[in-house]
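Run log, item B.
One chain of 181 residues. Sequence copied directly from the ordering sheet:
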Amino acid sequence: MTKNLLNKPLAKPQDPARRRPYLLAPVTPAELLSTLVGCVLGIGLLSGLAWWSGEPWLMAPFGASALLVYAAPKAPFAQPRNLFGGHLIGALVAISMMNLFGSNPVSITAATTLAILLMQMTNTLHPPGGATALLCSMLGTTDYGFILFPLMPGVVIMFVTAVIAGRLFPEDGVYPHDPLA
């Protein structure tokens, strides 16, 4: 395959007069391959580590982060500041709330809401970070060690594998799209 074939959309663009704003641009084979490589490397590595070690390397918010960093690497929510900051804020807020008030419907709601508000205020919006806050709250996580393991090592693995996958098809733009954002 040539580079030109890899960058050709798989579907025809919509008629601009009928375009609906919630539809994404057609995906190219290169973008699909980059997503495939990223997911296989990132989620595969985390899955393998979890299976091999018996430790909780995987968590549901990582599935949502995978979609962003591998399939939508140019999206603002996928950029490193958002990836790292969103998960960190989500966990810090939720763990703090659980330590102060325990796990109950009010503290779960407050932790998730506060985490999202803090992400907005710090320009680190990462939707899976909201899921991290919800997960920590639902589990009643009170140990800040959760941030050191498994959260941040998992985020680092996803970041590094997204960088690798993005470099394989540089004509589509490398990850991170905006390293300083």
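Observations after the first pass:
- The longest helix spans residues 29-53.
- The chain has a mean pLDDT of 90.
Flagged for discussion on Thursday.
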